[in-house]
Amino acid sequence: MIYSAIIDLLLASMIYFYGRKHEATKWAVLFLFFAGLGSFSDVAQAPVWHSLFFFILQACTPYGFIMFSIVYSETAIPRVKNIFACALALPIITTLLITPMKPDIQMDFLLLLFWAVPYYLAGCFLVIYAYLKEKNPLKRRNRLITACFIVPPVIMIVVVNHFERAVHTFGSYRYISLFVVIAFAVFIVSAIRFGVLGVRIKFEKQLHDQTIKGIVSGAAMLNHAMKNHITNIDMLTGRLKEHVQNRLHEQADEDIAVIQAETRQMMHMVKRIKKHIEDIEIVEGPASLSDIVAQALLSNRYLLEHKRISVLTDYSLPCNLICDKLHLQEVFANLIRNAVEAVEMDNGMLAIRIHESKKDFLVDFSNNGRGIDKETRAQLFEPFFSTKHHEDNFGLGLTYCYLIMQKHGGSIDVSSQQAGATFSIHLPKTRRA
């Protein structure tokens, strides 16, 4: 087991070094730290240290794994995750209180069958579920690799550690180290070729390259958001000049109000993306989904009018959510601008519909513009990918939308035929205000 301890602690260090910004990664590090530290129980000579390490291995490791799986699968909002983090720790405390620790620990493995084993099995299910529900091809591949790296060793632990110990047979326990070594090899190969759990190993200038990439992509994302608002303001000021010259004061007042709204949105974005090169900050609060869509439409009103695009809206489903209103408005505005660029002058149509499925609230943005082929759809959400081929298109609009939806525990997908496309926003009903 000393080999398992070394490998688990090495994995924890690597994952923390490369991907410590992500919440799921932190729980993965805690899980591996518990497993690695607990594995020293086989070599600890003093009874007190043996008991401590053995308890950590058997009682704390499953807690780290189930919390990693909950966060990794993105099935719970932050408030619910905090409740899980507290509630799922209660069996550890109960086990500690009823387990004799002197002269040597006497762990009740029948008791562990009722809570530790379900933690492991539920965690494996969530890791597999995260793969099955993923729509983005690249992330789906990475989730498959993660499942292959994690699930088999965990199932092996359940069988040869918990079930065999519960019935007092220990013949297969020595093979756990072999499974850990195999899993470590899979992790290293996958991290080099594809990336797994936020780790992508390169053998030259890794830290420098990551820093430069973060700065460039963060700055480009900010530029993309600012570019869209500046385009709107430029068009609005042109119309405002015409209205002033023609003494159309009422229309001029409307243009001024929209310009002020756009500048306020820009200022909020600048303040909130001060740490953009590290991560996107989400500030949640109650908001009406239809109000957010309406504001995104208002900010793009003149782009729609300029192309004479017909807009159809269906807000018949009342929907109040706990969400980040600022970022969701940016997501909707991005999808509206994409629709404007996709449709033809004078013949364009944009339909926006709020509806629901069994698990999600959905917002559909449908246009009658050019269709999107299957190969292009697979790349749409990749950073810097663009079909527009203009120097002022950074290829980050849909990547930004994808990141924001991930932060909300939701998703974005696209469907298209030969003509027209529909982008669908999915927000989980657990966010209902």
UniProtKB/TrEMBL annotation:
Q: Which SUPFAM superfamilies match?
A: ATPase domain of HSP90 chaperone/DNA topoisomerase II/histidine kinase
Under Enzyme Commission nomenclature, its number is: 2.7.13.3
Q: Which UniProt keywords apply?
A: ATP-binding, Kinase, Membrane, Nucleotide-binding, Transferase, Transmembrane, Transmembrane helix, Two-component regulatory system
User: In what residue span(s) does the Histidine kinase domain sit?
Assistant: 221-431
Q: Which reaction does it catalyse?
A: ATP + protein L-histidine = ADP + protein N-phospho-L-histidine
Q: Spell out the protein name for this chain.
A: histidine kinase
Q: Does the keyword Transmembrane apply?
A: yes
The transmembrane residues are: 27-46, 52-71, 83-101, 113-132, 144-163, 175-196
Q: Which GO terms describe its molecular function?
A: kinase activity
Name of one Pfam family that matches: HATPase_c
Tagged with keyword RNA-binding: no
